[in-house]
Design a protein that fits this description.
The protein has helices at about 5-10, 40, 45-60, 80-85, 95-110, 180-185, 185-205, 220-235, 260-280, 295-325, 345-355, 360-365; strands at about 25-30, 65-70, 70-75, 110-120, 125-130, 135-140, 145-150, 155-160, 165-170, 210-215, 250-255, 330-335. The strands form 4 sheets. It has a 4-stranded antiparallel sheet with strand order 1-6-7-8, with no helix packed on it. The chain is built from 12 helices and 12 strands.
């Protein structure tokens, strides 16, 4: 082993030797076979709504950088990541856009990847989101990962694990995340099939709004006259609710939805519920109000924050701690803002904090975004 190899080994870095046989691809592109691609799955409105509500909600949460000083934490607004969260992670992407892209990619492909940009002195200067479809993952002899990136425009490069933020959904091998679309491929395929059937049904079905029954046989001219008279008198929004006058023994019979059509509608509704289970999103948050009540709609936001957003926020915090921060610094995504839509619960929590001495009035005012109360001069 040469001097440079020993130096790199001591520092914990991998050499970029192209002849390393262990660099066989672990997971090209999405990594796992699935019945439908992430882009095609987003044609299902429930998949798009669930992934969007999770990603955009996390993107809207304030990102706070803290430095540990003994047992205390001190917010550090001067940290480079704090600057990126305010001014944008790159010239073309803001912090909310970056988090939304990263989380949506992790939800739909199992993996969200971003390149860490540093200057010559090693200081953080930016973050570049990388679509997972550009990536092929390889494993080095050391067991760590390398990421071969190709943007489809002739540019290719390799990134090592210390040069990326890799946000993963649950894995099967501890290395590469596996998408929920592949884990529940039958759910996605069945929902997509019911949507395709409904579309073909609407394209090909001739479903009348009703039928006029006549005892005698009408001639072609009589049929044409009757059709024209009905269209002129009863079709269109302007004629809604008008009285229909039939003569010659004619009777009107309204068309009824068939049991087969009703079953199709129920199947499509159930598909929405299945996808909500897949992404752990309360159905009211994706505009499914079929089982909605005042009680469950009021608690849906808190449930969503506790059981859906909080685990993802913790994953983001842990991944930034692994890949970006030096010891003593940490990222916190502040979920307390989700209580702002529930003032009764929020102020009751403030009241308990004041009574137990956890917070003082000025700290409560700070939580609410207000300045400390001005000190009054003592009476003389």
């Amino acid at each position: 082993m040469g001097m440079m190899d020993r130096l790199f080994s001591r520092m914990g870095f991998e050499r970029r030797a192209a002849d390393d046989p262990s660099w066989g691809a672990l997971a090209p592109n999405i990594g796992y076979a699935t019945s439908v691609t992430a882009r095609a799955a987003e044609n299902l409105s429930a998949v798009l709504a669930c992934s969007t509500v999770i990603a955009s909600s996390l993107a809207s949460i304030p990102a706070l950088i803290y430095r540990r000083e003994g047992d205390n934490r001190v917010e550090t607004a001067s940290h480079p990541l704090a600057r990126l969260s305010r001014l944008g992670v790159s010239d073309s992407m803001t912090w909310p856009e970056f988090i939304e892209h990263l989380v949506a990619s992790a939800l739909l492909t199992g993996n969200g990847l971003a390149e860490i940009k540093r200057n010559a002195s090693g200081a953080l200067i930016g973050l570049d989101f990388i679509p997972w479809t550009w990536v092929t993952v390889s494993q080095l002899r050391s067991g760590r990962l390398a990421y071969d990136v190709s943007d489809g425009r002739g540019r290719s490069w390799r990134l090592l694990s210390g040069e990326v933020i890799h946000l993963r959904d649950r894995t099967d091998d501890g290395l590469v995340g596996r998408s929920r679309l592949s884990r529940a491929a039958d759910v996605i395929a069945a929902t997509q099939a019911s949507n395709q059937f409904a579309r073909k049904f609407l394209d090909n079905s001739a479903q009348p709004g009703g039928v006029i029954e006549v005892a005698a046989t009408l001639k072609a001219e009589q049929r044409a006259d009757l059709r024209a008279a009905m269209a002129a008198r009863n079709n269109g929004a302007a004629n809604a609710g008008t009285t229909m006058i039939l003569d010659g023994g004619m009777t009107w019979k309204a068309a009824q939805i068939s049991p087969e059509d009703a079953e199709l509608l129920e199947t499509r509704k159930f598909g929405v519920e299945e996808i909500c289970r897949l992404f752990q999103v309360p159905p009211p948050l994706v505009q499914d109000y079929s089982h909605n009540t005042f009680t469950n709609s009021e608690t849906a936001g808190r449930w969503f924050a506790m059981f859906t957003l909080s685990p993802w926020a913790r994953r983001i915090e842990a991944e930034f701690a692994r890949s970006l921060f030096t010891p003593g610094y940490e990222l916190e995504l502040d979920l307390s803002g989700f209580l702002r839509g529930d003032p009764a619960t929020r102020w009751n929590a403030h009241k308990i904090a004041l009574e137990t001495g956890v917070l003082d009035p000025d700290e409560v005012r700070q939580v609410e975004g207000w300045n400390p109360r001005a000190q009054r001069a003592p009476d003389t």
